Amino acid sequence: MQFSNEEWFTKAKAVTPGGVDSPVRAFKGVGGTPRFMQSASGATLTDVEGKKYIDYCMSWGPLMFGHRDAEIEAAIIDALAKGWTYGTASPYSVLLAELIVKEIPCVEKIRFVNSGTEAVMSALRVARGATKRTKIVKFDGCYHGHVDSLLIRAGSGLAEMASPDSAGVTPAQAGDTIVAPLDDEQALETIFKTHGNEIAALIIEPLPANNGLLPQRPEFLKFLREVTTRYGALLIFDEVMSGFRIGFGGMAEETGITPDLITYGKIIGGGFPVGAYGGRKELMDLVAPQGPVYQAGTLSGNPVAMTAGITMLKKLLNEKPFANLQKATESLGKTVEKIAAKYAPYPITVQSHGSKFWMICGETKGTVRHINQIPPEHKERFAGIFHGLLKRGFYLAPSGFEVGFMATVHTSEINAAFATAFEDVLKEQQ
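Below the sequence we write its predicted structure tokens.
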């Protein structure tokens, strides 16, 4: 490309809000100029200036086999040769749905949409249609896409904003949302005692990962199932980021908890724009055209995305990379902590779960499970580490509140190089 990253950013800001199509990409949380990537392959991103970076973001999770995996790419090219959008029913979404329904016990029927946000929006509509109730319970720090009623004390890009709420969300839209603290059964019990007969559903990321990686106690997650059942509300697991990455069955499988509805995204399209919501048959049968809950999308079930998803999920079933990815992620985290203990002027810990990890720069007391436990100095310290690593050719999510993702293309040699670069960054900061 003939322009530098700085020049592309200047051009972008003239025609696009903030110069980006999604807030975190603007580097607002870490400062500096975002990198405009022009290509990718394996574990590597290449920017418009030709500089290469080892990518630990992996398009925010879906690329478990790295960029341009040969098997998935071949399937995509074959699908493109047949046409890239039909606007009709097609066999490809049926095949992907059959695969998911067969392998995921809590998904008896599924509907494909175009994003995780659409999936969550639709699942909430189903919950309200099924229960004839209006209120939704969400958790402080959990992010469920840019659905108006859920942009209240959310995570992701909002964690970097001066206000955690979005302008443009009306009091009426926010009024049916109740925000609960994570890791607090008593607070949740109080909410249900007060509003139980009004609550249609409780929605949670069972592995919160949009405001830091905040693993929840199994007992707490099981309590969610118990309290919602007791009060006749639905339990929705938002597995847009954890589904098919934390094991094939996601957190629902790992915890043994059966949600009433579940939302997916990212991986089930092999990295293409896709989302889905599914769950119990009697709930999903409320969706149009079979039932009264309306939801539609011209590009839903896109044949290229469905083909990519089929290939991705079959590859996951065949190769079963989950244990090795978890081992590599835990190993890298321990290495980072060991280096930090030797060179960092402040404590650094790494929380990981499966193939997701999060670096915490500051003093912590045990596992960080909710946002109030994040050290206030973490954001500034992470920014320094981020830029040190970026200069050395390693790309992490450009926010101290986002997580990293391990993929099969992150070899032991690549992870060792990351550790060496991390050590150099800390030495430079001394």
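Residues 70-319 form a domain with the Aspartate Aminotransferase; domain 2 fold (CATH 3.40.640.10).
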